[in-house]
Amino acid sequence: MSDEYTPNAVELATELAIAWLGNPNNRVAADDVPAFLEKMHRTVTELAQGSSPGQATEDGGPQQEYPPAVSVRKSLGSKDHIISLIDGKPYKTLRRHLSGHGLTPEQYRERYNLKADYPMVAENYSAARREMAHKIGLGRQGREAKTAAAAAAPATKTKRAPLRPKFK
Fold this sequence. Notes:
Layout lengths: L8 H13 L11 H16 L23 H4 L6 E2 L6 E2 L3 H6 L4 H7 L11 H14 L3 H17 L12
Antiparallel strand pairs: 1-2
Helix pairs in contact: 1-2
């Protein structure tokens, strides 16, 4: 008789979920907990069966389909925010949200079949940041220095005698 402990997938998924949700750095809404538990159970079951969660199918395509939380049109419906296709929540910028899900903007666009010019920052937020940057002078110093150098260059160009080395 073997003394090996083999927990079932439900127990293991529950313990992992409790540990993850018990971490004070992880913030999860109460409504998202059942979906998280289901995903954890599915992942543990797949791992126990010997297949990996993101494994590709025989035809080379991805195994998991990612249905968007909202339509692409609705995600860009407001100029104040962009609604995430992952969770349906509004964000001024998607970059940090995507990195929390382990995605780059390119992977996000590929996952949901978005065009390459799909924005990652809300239009009004981008305009406010641009206006603030202009107000505090970002980028102006370089332009002013180039303009001043171009204006001063023709006035100071005089013919100089070549320098001679001082050898004794």
